[in-house]
Amino acid sequence: WELAGPESVTADHLRPQLEGDGRSIPCLGVLDGTPMSYWEIYRADLDPLARHYPARPHDTGVHLLIGGVNNRGRGVGTTLLRAVADLVLDNLPKCGRVVAEPDLRNTPSVSAFLSAGFRFSAEVDLPDKRAALMIRDRTYRAQL
């Protein structure tokens, strides 16, 4: 997310999320009382991402940032991705798919999405990265 550096960089990213039009919802993940992840749940079909794949009405996207090395590589990401995708599908009946676009080079992230029930759909060229388009379909949810 290019958020390394001074806190002002992160603040500049978060401000529009908090003051936005409701198309994106910022969320903080807490584990045992400690903040450990940041999420953005957004209308992917209304996002610039929709220009890069065959978006469907009410596609919902997720962005995830897991902080702290001790929370990485233990399956926490997979568990969180599955839980958040389930929450989206449980609470947004018009949403048929949850989508994400991790950097294709970030193999641990792509692996976590696959383990959480997302499928690899395509490689997409985005302005800031070559991404793996990952999709979790409502239709196949019962098989997970």
From TrEMBL:
Tree of life domain: Bacteria
Gene Ontology biological-process entries: response to antibiotic
Domain N-acetyltransferase, first and last residues per copy: 1-139
Pfam families xrefs: Acetyltransf_8
GO molecular function: N-acyltransferase activity
Record key words, sorted: Antibiotic resistance, Transferase
Transmembrane segments: none
Protein name in UniProt: Acetyltransferase
Organism: Streptomyces sp. SID7499
